[in-house]
Amino acid sequence: MGFTQAVKTCLSKYVTFSGRAARSEFWWFALFVYGGGLLLGLLDLALFGQTTTVTTETSAAVSSQTQFAPFSSVFGLLVVLPYISVTVRRLHDTDRSGWWYWLALIPLIGIIVLIVWLASKGTPGRNRFGEEPLGAVAPPN
Question: Any idea of the CA torsion for 82, 87, 93, 95, to the nearest 10 degrees?
């Protein structure tokens, strides 16, 4: 599955948590999400810059930085649900329940385990979550 087909598939299955997703579908969509967020973040920075505000309290000065980032924020809100759903479907492809996504809440170890599972090959043929996402692929001659 190519980049554009993966993005179209993930966006058309906006909140579809059933079924399976191939590795290529997941990783191309992840590239789209992180790449789009990076590019739109740079656009936000170029257009709106970074604002620094300083507030003085009774005895100490408190400084905080805020960044007005409407483009990357809206993009993030639009892709969060399809990203979660394609991740769940990718876990289904490895014959794991989508509830394993909660493993990401364990600092460092959970993310590493999830990345390994998401990068691993899916179960061949039919599993309890459905048919192979890309169908049976013939071996090269």
Answer: -130
Cβ 89 vs Cβ 117: under 8 Å: no
Q: What are phi and psi of 13, to 5 degrees?
A: -100, 50
Report which of 4, 27, 2 is spatially closest to residue 86, judged by C-alpha positions.
Answer: 27
Cross-strand partners of 66: 51
Instruction: With a cut of 90, say whether residue 109 has pLDDT above it.
Output: yes
Give the span between the Cα atoms of 132 and 71, in whole angstroms. Answer: 36
Give the C-alpha separation, 126 to 135, whole Å. Answer: 10
Find where tokens 């364990």 sit.
Answer: 106
pLDDT in tens, 65-78: 556 788 999 999 99
| Residue from 8, 11, 35, 2 nearest 85 by CA | 11
d(Cα 22, Cα 13) in Å, to the nearest integer?
Answer: 14
What predicted TM-score, i.e. pTM, was given to this entire model?
0.81
